[in-house]
Write a structure and sequence with these properties.
Number of helices of chain A: 11
Number of strands of chain B: 3
Number of domains of chain A: 1
CATH architecture of chain A: 3-Layer(aba) Sandwich
Strand content of chain A: 15-25%
Oligomer: heterodimer
Low-confidence stretches of chain A: none
Distance between the termini of chain A: 13 Å
Strand order of the largest sheet of chain A: 3-4-2-5-1-6-7-8
Order of helices and strands of chain A: EHEHHEEHHEHEHEHEHHH
Shape of chain B: elongated
CATH class of one domain in chain B: Mainly Alpha
Helix content of chain A: 40-55%
Largest sheet of chain A: 8 strands, mixed
Order of helices and strands of chain B: HHEHHEEH
Number of helices of chain B: 5
Mean pLDDT of chain B: 83
Chain lengths: 259, 131
């Protein structure tokens, strides 16, 4: 039976899309059938990590929500179109799909203006799980609390909340944890990203777990090498021994073994 | 803030039909049983009554289940379909569009189309020069 995992953060800039892409890639590398849905309709971006742009991505979630195609036609098979990036070569032949949102300004404007049928979005996600015989469906969300985030929280088996060791993120995460608990999310994890290397990561983990009463699946370092890469590749596949990559593989292992 | 033309449009019956339905955040205010049902129904989208009853049999009596389902249908959160083989469907509220005046959007659409046309023409010039 497939599991739905939502990746969320209260604020932007926490590394959500990079984390989602890397986690999904690592789970696909473990031989699982994995799809990622970019529900960040107003500011899509995860497709860039897989080498896609407006021209290459073909059909999008926007096309599905507008009734122009079934959702199966939107699923872009990453394993068959990895592009040139070195890290992504490892995904050749893997069962990994991306359901992207449109980068076309007219499409974004249209959906902001007209809204969309949330029932249709929800049915589409269910259809995807079945049609692609997924083991895992990752949902990349827009930061903060909004319709898409709340829907993803309700339908998810696992909610992973990403935060930076920063007071704004701490307060916002408390709000999200509170709401997730009230919506009876079956499982929750926190992922601390962009932690300064001079911090005691064990201490960070212990403090965050004690503060929220939620298990921390990883404390990842601030990663200048990732910034330098500029979303051109999947970092943990390009640099598998980097401390950040080791950390993200630990989170993937937690998903595979415990959740 | 909507403009005068939007108000006139709404007065002559141009507003979108309100399909009702819930927002996921509404779940928080439901009694435990109903929240549990709705959470499952939002995930499953649509289920026959027989499967819902099978799912609930370990923690809810049939009477309680039927009462909860009837209540959720009355509130517009579930849609009940069929007479003999009854099926229930979760009814999520449509995500509303912007409340900006329609004229603002019309202007934005026009500017976007102009910008895209200019970009396409520039790309064509570059490609022609390259060849």
């Amino acid at each position: 039976m497939s599991k739905t995992i939502s990746i969320h953060s209260f604020r932007g800039g926490t590394g959500k899309s990079n984390t989602t892409a890397n986690l999904a890639a690592q789970v696909a590398m473990a031989g699982k059938r994995v799809a990622i849905v970019d529900t960040d309709i107003q500011s899509p971006g995860i497709h860039v990590l897989f080498g896609l742009d407006e021209k290459k991505m073909g059909k999008t979630l926007n096309d599905f929500l507008a009734g122009r195609c079934p959702i199966e036609e939107v699923a872009f098979n990453i394993g068959e179109h990895v592009g040139d990036a070195q890290g992504r070569q490892a995904l050749i032949g893997k069962d990994l799909w991306l359901i992207p949102s449109s980068m076309n300004s007219g499409e974004i404007s249209k959906i902001l203006r007209d809204g969309y049928d949330v029932n249709m979005m929800n049915k589409g996600l269910k259809t995807l799980r079945k049609a692609l015989e997924l083991d895992y469906l990752f949902i990349d969300t827009h930061p903060g609390l909004n319709e898409e985030t709340l829907l993803s929280i309700v339908i998810s088996d696992v909610l992973i909340i990403i935060l930076r060791p920063d007071q704004q993120d701490f307060q916002g995460t408390a709000v999200t944890v509170d709401i997730a608990r009230s919506l009876d999310v079956p499982a929750m994890r926190l992922l601390v990203n962009k932690a300064l290397t001079r911090y005691d990561f064990d201490q960070v983990r212990a403090t965050v777990e004690a503060s929220y009463g939620v298990k921390v699946s990883g404390v990842l370092p601030l990663n200048e090498d990732m910034v330098d890469m500029g979303s051109a590749d999947i970092f943990s596949l390009r640099y598998p021994d980097h401390p950040w990559s080791v950390g993200i593989k630990g989170v993937a292992q937690d998903i595979l073994e415990n959740l | 803030m909507s403009g005068v033309f939007d108000q006139l449009h709404n007065q002559i019956g141009g507003q979108d039909e309100d399909s009702g339905g819930i927002s996921p955040l509404d779940l928080r205010d439901l009694p435990d049983n109903q929240r549990r049902i709705m959470r499952m129904m939002i995930t499953e989208v649509e289920l026959p009554y027989t499967e819902i009853r099978e799912w609930a049999e370990d923690f809810m009596s049939q009477d309680d289940l039927d009462e909860a389902l009837a209540d959720l249908v009355m509130q517009g959160w579930l849609i009940r379909m069929g007479e003999t083989n009854i099926v229930y469907e979760a009814n999520l509220r449509r995500k509303a569009g912007s409340e900006l005046a329609k004229s603002v959007w019309a202007n934005l659409d026009k500017k976007i189309a102009e910008a895209q046309k200019a970009r396409d023409e520039a790309m064509e010039d570059i490609n022609n020069q390259a060849s």
